Amino acid sequence: MKKTTTDNLFCDKCKSNTCSIIKSCTPEQIDNVSTNKSCSSYKRGEALFHEGGMPFGLFCINSGSVKIIKQASGGKEQIVRIATKGDMVGYRSLLMKQRYTATAIASEDSKVCLIPREEFYKLTLENHKFYDAVIRKLCEELEDSHTKIADIAYKPVRGRLAEALLLLAQANSDNKNEINLTRDDLASFVGTVKETTIRVLAEFKDEGLVVLDKRTIRLTNVAGLERISNIYD
Question: Is the pLDDT of residue 22 over 70?
Answer without folding.
Answer: yes
